[in-house]
Amino acid sequence: MRTYQVWAPSAAAVSVDVDGAAHALARCPDRAGWWSGDAPEGDYAFRLDGGPPLPDPRSPWQPHGPDGPSRPVDHAAFRWSQTGWRGRALPGAVLYELHIGTFTARGTFESAAEHLDHLVELGVDFVELMPVCPFPGRHGWGYDGVSLWAVHEPYGGPEGLKRFVDAAHRKGLGVVLDVVHNHLGPSGNYLPAYGPYFTDRHHTPWGSAVNLDAPGSDEVRRYLIGSALAWLRDYRIDGLRLDAVHALADDRAVHFLEELSHEVERLAVSTNRPLFLIAESDLNTPRTTAPREAGGQGLTAQWSDDFHHALHCALTGESQGYYGDFAHRPLAAVAKTLTRGFFHDGTWSAFRGRGHGRPFPPDGGHRLLGYLQTHDQIGNRALGDRVSTSLTPGRLACGAALVLTSPFTPMLFMGEEWGAATPWQYFTDHTDPQLAEAVRQGRRREFAEHDWAAEAVPDPQEPATLLRSVLDWTEPRRSPHRELLAWYRTLIRLRRERPELSDPGLGAVRVAYDEAARWLVVHRGPYRVAVNLGPAEAVPPLDGTGRELVAAFGAAALNGTAVRLGADAVAIVAV
């Protein structure tokens, strides 16, 4: 026997079906809106007021998909390796974002674990998994997930995720998990049947907002926080990446993120492990990572799209959409982000038609994640094309150097380290034909506004769209991928060996650049990171006499107080 519990405040009667047999639940006298009762253990579903069977909102396992019955999981029964892994803090680390379904051809936790040695040799510290909650169908990005306490069965289910985390820890790698609290997928979401999980008090791009501040929000907040703590506790995840926190509408005195960071800190103390939270935020506010005692929300770090946009413009010359804010003087934009954190720190944003952001503290560079590519910045393009399809290996090497010697916490996207030629496209496997067609047409309409013909935009539901997005693991053995991979390994090693190249102090960074000649030099203590993005040879000054050419990609030579760089070349020089 086991005890079944569920929050259903508006229901007049609740029962649980276990392996087809119904068992009535009773109201909990000391927990408003909760129902409880004992029944045999097995696959189960709840019925509200005699309605159809529904999966448990807190289901730990959906072996038959998000529409099927739930199954209990005894987390204490898993045999973890005695690795001695006690976690590691985020500052000073390098992250590697990957999608389980396309990291390998088999698309499982087990097959992903077979490539962990590659990540160890690369030198990264954390694997950041894109969302793994269940969603309809087999394939998808994961941001349409439901059942926020469960694991997508085609990836390997709860047991598969634990084995992956255990394998990573054995090799000295931490694991970060991307979680989505701002919305649930449009299919398989049964939360509204149970209670006020959503509210019309606020609206988001996905419709009614998750209820964080309306009546009933106490339990909704506990639901989300309980899910977050379960990943960290039951699966021994080391940190969470929180999707689009700017869409978490909350007018309460204690913001949801502040409450979440407090609870995660308590769990870190009780488990004696460093645990952390990373936000994706469009707000450009240091409040996200400021300490709670100082009126902040207390998260450890946040993604830095400003740095990405500036670097992308400098490398590619693109100026459409939000890149327009950065494209007028892209090297100046790179310089500002490297020295001030945010590009938009109260400045005018033409893309938004208003001022945006506020200054970032100069001593907190490690609280910003810096990256050249992410799942969003690749997959949200019409063709899902990586920058490697349009840039030379030398220019990719320049971008890598600016990321991996920056004052930020660097993050790579899977395959970036060898300049993967495979795209990463938007793919779905919706089982509802109407939803599938709506997504297909919506994708085409989105890019029709940018003069893309409908037939040119990959169909998200076509199996070929997924297959094109799977990494080709033969590429790292071939030129020029092999040489670029060696460069990434060198940069990460230097970041470890020479602390000045990872110093998070923004105030200590100086940047010289020539917008017309297209060269830029970043001063990192006694080191100069010099890149030439121009078509001709450049000789940027070092502000000192070059003593050692520490590393280079492309044609580079010391020239006294300057460094001579060929087109699309980069050098790290000690002065």
Please explain how this structure is put together.
By secondary structure, the chain is α/β, with parallel strands linked by helices. The chain has three domains: 53 residues, Immunoglobulin-like (Sandwich); 316 residues, Glycosidases (TIM Barrel), CATH 3.20.20; 65 residues, Golgi alpha-mannosidase II (Immunoglobulin-like). 26% of the residues lie in helices and 20% in strands. It is built from 15 helices and 25 strands. It has an eight-stranded parallel β-barrel with strand order 7-8-9-12-13-14-17-18, surrounded by five helices. A five-stranded antiparallel beta sheet has the order 19-20-21-25-22, covered by helices on one side. It has a three-stranded antiparallel beta sheet with strand order 1-5-4, with no helix packed on it. α4 links the parallel β8 and β9. It is elongated. The termini are far apart. 48% of the residues are buried. The mean pLDDT is 97.
How is the secondary structure organized here?
Elements: E1 2-7, E2 14-18, E3 21-24, E4 26-27, E5 34-39, E6 44-48, E7 95-98, H1 100-103, H2 109-113, H3 116-122, E8 126-129, H4 157-170, E9 174-179, H5 191-194, E10 198-204, E11 207-210, H6 217-234, E12 239-242, H7 256-271, E13 276-279, E14 301-303, H8 305-316, H9 324-327, H10 330-340, E15 347-349, E16 354-356, E17 368-371, H11 375-379, H12 393-404, E18 409-413, H13 433-448, H14 463-468, H15 481-497, E19 510-514, E20 519-524, E21 527-532, E22 548-553, E23 556-559, E24 562-565, E25 569-574
Parallel strand pairs: 7-8, 7-18, 8-9, 9-12, 12-13, 13-14, 14-17, 17-18
Antiparallel strand pairs: 1-5, 2-3, 2-6, 4-5, 10-11, 15-16, 19-20, 20-21, 21-25, 22-25, 23-24
